[in-house]
Design brief:
about 0% helix, elongated, 8 strands, mainly beta
């Protein structure tokens, strides 16, 4: 994946919102190319959201998620400057990750 993951993390009081845009083809394996050949499956299988180095959300994904998925997470007990990171793994063994910090919103 050549495009970077985009993270926006904002905090109001002690409530934080993290929005993550993950460039990925998310191909289900069900579609066909113009020549009629099945496109091979290529999709994110797991994601982990960490706060200050500690995993706080882990999820499993499948083929029903759209191309370049956008995820939003709500977190309690955060403050401006806290570090947030996201990591993913796909069915072909490729990985992606990004890191950001909470900003006052």
């Amino acid at each position: 994946m050549s495009e970077p993951i985009k993270i926006r993390a904002t905090v109001k009081g002690t409530e934080g919102e993290v929005r993550v845009l993950m460039p990925h083809p998310m191909e289900s394996g069900q579609r066909r190319d113009p020549a009629g050949q099945a496109l091979p499956a290529h999709f994110i299988t797991s994601i982990t959201l960490s706060l200050n180095g500690r995993p706080v959300i882990e999820g499993a994904l499948g083929t029903a998620v759209s191309t370049n998925p956008l995820f939003a997470f709500q977190l309690q007990g955060v403050k401006a400057g806290d570090k947030v990171s996201i990591a993913w793994l796909d069915n072909k063994g490729q990985k992606g990750n990004a890191e950001g910090a909470f900003a006052a919103g």
